[in-house]
Design a protein that fits this description.
The protein is built from 19 helices and 34 strands. By secondary structure, the chain is an alpha+beta fold.
Length: about 650
């Protein structure tokens, strides 16, 4: 199992010297580092363990001015080698580095008591006691404290043996499916172009793969791969990795970006986090406080929004919201560190519980429940909470992978189980997009209520068309979700669909007595008229009713298939035909065009006996209905 060890400790306590003594590699590569004798940037080395595995080492700067670089390096380590000089003991950055490791979730390590050759036995024992007292109550409380001298070689073998034993006992805790490489260094290599380096926190990557820089979204390909100084075809999680990127200049890439596969991360300006405020902090953390926020190798200014209080006291933990000026790309469970704006020191840290947050004002009972599910719930609870938060847009499977922290195979089984229980519904197979089952039930209840209100307001209409339902009620719903909801309601017997018309199951048009008589009168007038129907104005005059009162009944007769509208007459009034009469005309036209290739307007008039008043509108109606098609001055039967 690939493993990364990080060094931590105060400036000038011998971290880099100890790494060089163990590995033969000098991690100080910068001219300024050589000149000043201090580590400024992250340093990297590797060490071949007795069990055959190559251990990656991140050497972190100890100066307080470069703590942000230390945080970037510590973000990907599996355990820490805390270095304390025997002649100075525990110092400010010893404390801050240990706090940072704790906040980042590091829970394994050992302690090197360096410069053991510079003190006598009595002082060495006092230094050991000082370190043991300091480590009490921390994750290093029971860790071995090994006196060592990089100059004389004293204790080097003991340190190496302790490292090997610790590596053997480490649990496997890196994801294998979601490739992520937080970038901590960008440079140009002659003959190769732009190269980025980082600690592979999860997944693996291979030569030739398409990759994306997040949050910028810049697309590129893996041109070359190197791990621990060797060219490789594939680089796994848990290794220091250098990636040669295709087609990019150094200025196209920024330290702090994350290299991952296309469509696998979803940058956001709002994160929900579970934050612990260090008990060593000097004052409360106020609501909307501006801070330095560290995630992976990236640092950004942010504001902390406390949802359930006005201030967070030292030692307390709260679920809160962090908002950024620029998007950040994270995954559920990632560790974060917060440093105060002034004075610049580490004050808090914790866990990312929602990397695609939505702005919240204050904590409500529902918000508290959802955040609790995201922070403490099992994978099922996290999926259902995220689907509820996503609303009718829902979430894709790829988004759920980032939002839940689950492996692909595990999430696939989980979502299938939730789908079978009706708790998660797949509404877009192409995008593999899901919506909350509970939310869908609420939407279907709302759609049924909308239909009921429509039936009450429009008793003479058989129902709403799909388009009307979409524009009046479902305008904020994705088309595929609306389609799924309609299909489910029809299967459940709540709704009925006839062509494009939707109605509640069992709904029938109800007419008042006078409207029933009007319907019968209108239908009789047009049926009696046959191929030469009466003018609407004359029909209404005979029935003693106005056009406005007749309009809904005429519309109902069309929806019921009793009348067809063929156009407007010279007065601008609708021209109707009884459906039976129009079908007889169609039969005659079809028969004629079966025996003849084409039909002229005069031939149509002779065939039907219609005057020009009716012949032209009827021919145009048949064209509009795609029964015939006009070719020049003649009609032909449209092929079906």
């Amino acid at each position: 199992m690939p493993v990364i060890m990080g060094t931590a400790g105060h400036i000038d306590h011998g971290k880099t010297t100890l790494v060089k003594a163990l590995t033969g590699i000098d991690c100080d590569r910068l001219v300024e580092e050589k000149k000043r004798g201090i580590t400024i940037e992250l340093g990297f080395a590797f060490y071949d363990l007795p069990q055959g595995e190559r251990l990656g080492i991140v050497d972190m700067p100890g100066h307080e001015r470069f703590v942000k670089n230390m945080v970037a390096g510590a973000a990907g380590i599996d355990f820490v080698l805390l270095v304390v000089a025997a002649d100075e003991g525990v110092m400010p950055q010893t404390r801050e580095h240990l706090e940072i490791c704790t906040l980042l979730g590091v829970d394994q390590g050992l302690v090197a008591l360096t410069k053991a050759d510079m003190v006598d036995e009595e002082l060495l024992e006092l230094a050991r006691e000082d370190v043991s007292d300091f480590l009490g109550g921390t994750f290093l409380e029971d860790a071995p404290v090994i006196p060592v001298s990089a100059h004389t070689g004293q204790g080097l073998a003991d340190v190496a043996s302790a490292i090997a034993s610790l590596v053997d006992s480490l649990p496997v805790r890196r994801r294998t499916d979601l490739f992520r490489l937080p970038i901590d260094r960008v440079f140009t290599m002659r003959g190769h172009g732009t190269v980025v380096t980082g600690t592979m926190v999860s997944g693996s990557v291979s030569l030739g793969e398409a990759v994306t820089l997040y949050p910028s979204g810049t697309a590129t390909k893996v041109r070359g791969l190197q791990s621990h100084g060797e060219q490789v075809e594939t680089a796994p999680a848990g290794r220091r990795t250098a990636v040669n990127l295709h087609g990019l200049e150094v200025e196209d890439v920024a330290r702090g970006e994350v290299l991952a596969r296309p469509g696998s991360l979803f940058p956001s300006k709002v994160w929900d986090v579970e934050l612990t405020y260090l008990s060593s902090a000097h004052r409360d953390l106020k609501h909307r406080k501006e801070v330095h926020f560290h995630h992976g190798t990236r640092e950004q200014m942010a504001k902390v929004y406390l949802l359930d209080r006005d201030a967070l006291a030292p030692g307390d933990t709260a679920r809160c919201q962090v908002r950024f000026a620029e998007p950040m790309a994270g995954v559920w469970g990632d560790r974060v560190v917060v440093r105060s704006f002034s004075p610049l020191r580490t004050i808090a840290g914790g866990r990312l519980i929602n990397p695609m947050g939505r702005k919240l004002k204050r904590m409500t009972a529902d918000t508290a429940r959802l955040l609790a599910d995201l922070a403490e719930g099992d994978a099922d609870a996290r999926v259902l909470a995220q689907l509820w938060l996503a609303g009718p847009v829902g979430l894709s499977f790829a988004e759920l992978l980032a939002l839940t922290g689950e492996e692909t195979k595990t999430l696939d089984k989980l979502i299938q189980t939730l789908s079978s229980q009706g708790k998660a519904l797949l509404y877009d197979k192409e995008q593999r997009r899901y919506v909350s089952g509970e939310l869908a039930e609420g939407l279907m209840d709302s759609a049924a209520a909308h239909l009921k209100a429509f039936h009450e307001a429009e008793p003479m209409r058989p129902g709403l068309t799909r388009g009307e339902l979409a524009s009046a009620w479902g305008k904020r719903l994705p088309d595929k979700l609306l389609h799924m909801l309609i299909e489910r309601m029809c299967k459940q017997g709540v709704m009925e669909a006839e062509a494009e018309v939707l109605r509640l199951a069992g709904h029938e048009v109800s007419l008042a007595t006078d409207q029933e008589a009007l319907r019968d009168g209108l239908l009789k007038a047009y049926r009696d008229g046959g191929a030469t129907p009466p003018n609407l104005k004359d029909v209404l005059a005979d029935l003693g009713i106005g056009q406005k009162a007749a309009a809904p009944v005429l519309k109902l007769l069309q929806e019921q298939g009793e009348l067809v509208k063929i156009g407007l007459d010279k007065a601008g009034l609708d021209m109707f035909y009884a459906t039976r009469a129009m079908e007889r005309i169609k039969d005659r036209v079809a028969g004629f065009l079966t025996d003849n290739a084409e039909m002229s307007a005069p031939q149509f008039k002779d065939l039907t006996g219609l005057s020009r008043k009716y012949a032209i509108p009827v021919m145009e109606y048949l064209d509009k209905e795609k029964f015939t098609v006009r070719v020049g001055d003649v009609r032909v039967l449209r092929k079906r």
